[in-house]
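Methods — Computational structure assignment.
A single polypeptide chain was analysed. Its primary sequence is given first, followed by the predicted tertiary structure written as structure tokens.
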Amino acid sequence: MALTLLGWGIGQGVTWETLRVLGRASVPLLGIVFNLIGFGALVAVALVRLGVMDGKTAFLASCPGALSQMAGPSP
């Protein structure tokens, strides 16, 4: 419930000006996203090759943004 209310509150702050700024910043933002995904993949491969964990666990452990979902209560 708290995550829903938080998302709703953030969504209420989106205006046409916000969308215009995001449009201008889309190329750098996409670069950051792809770099973050690439870095996570490298970390996952390193964890598997070092024998620290199996592939599925390493992939899930290196996915960005999962901490906020793990911190929230389970349904």
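Note: Residues 52 and 58 are 8 Å apart (CA to CA).
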